[in-house]
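Aim 2 progress update. The chain analyzed this quarter is reproduced below.
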Amino acid sequence: MKRKLSILLGTAVMLTSVSMSAAAAESDSPAVTAQQQSAAGNLVQARKVLNDLGAAIEWDHETKSAIIELEDLSIIIDAVEKSALYNGKQFFFEEGMLTFADGRLYVSAAFIETVFGGMLVEVSGTYSIVKEKNETRSA
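Predicted structure tokens:
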């Protein structure tokens, strides 16, 4: 289960920097709009955020899953089912919390904050997680 979560999450993140397959490219993937960003609690590019946090990311084209690993954290995002597994917990993305645009995967900042247990902040184009007592997690 942990491996599947890792595979699934890495897959979703890898998609953010890898061109979509021909079949996926033919779909009507809308661009991320300002309205979606505010409605979903700010969508963020998954690969950018997770790379900034130091995560290892792998995309599985067959399952359309992102596998993400960072220290003791393992995450699998299933882009088809719009769900994620992290450290044995299952998370279902609500409408607008996960989308593809321009061959990249976007997830809600709220999801990143839930998984990493802190507030996602961007300073000078770099993301980090700020936890209580001023503990910051970044690469």
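Residues 5-40 have pLDDT under 50 and may be disordered. The chain has five helices and eleven strands. These observations will guide the mutagenesis experiments scheduled for the next reporting period.
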